[in-house]
Amino acid sequence: MILCVRASIILAARKNSRFLKTRTCSSASSIRFERDPESRYSFFDGQRANLNSNALKLVFCTILEIFAENDLMRSTYSVMERAISVDLHGIVYVLVDGYVSSEASIKLLDLLLWIYTKGSMIELSLSTFGKMVHNGFAQDVKNCNRILRVLRDRNLVTKEGEVQEALDLLLQMQERGCAPNDVTYNVLINGLSKKGELEQATGLIEEMLNLGLKVSAFTYTPLICGYCKKGELDEALDIGLENLREAFLLFDELRSGHLICTLEVEMIHQGVLPDVFTYTILVNGSCKMGNLRMAKELFDEMLREGLQPDCFAYATRIVGELKLGDTSKAFSPQEEMLAKGIPPDLIIYNVLVDGLCRLGNLKEANELLRKMVQDGLVPGHVTYTCIIHAHSENGHLRESREVFYEMLSKGLSPSVVTYTVLIHAHAGKGRLELAFMFFSEMQEKGILPNVITYNSLINGLCKVKRIEQAYKFFADMEEKGLCPNKYTYTLLINENCNLGNWHEAFRLYTQMLDRGIQPDSCTHSALLKQIGKDYKLHAVQYLENLK
DNA sequence: ATAGGGTTAG
Question: What are phi and psi of A154, to 5 degrees?
Answer without folding.
Answer: -65, -45
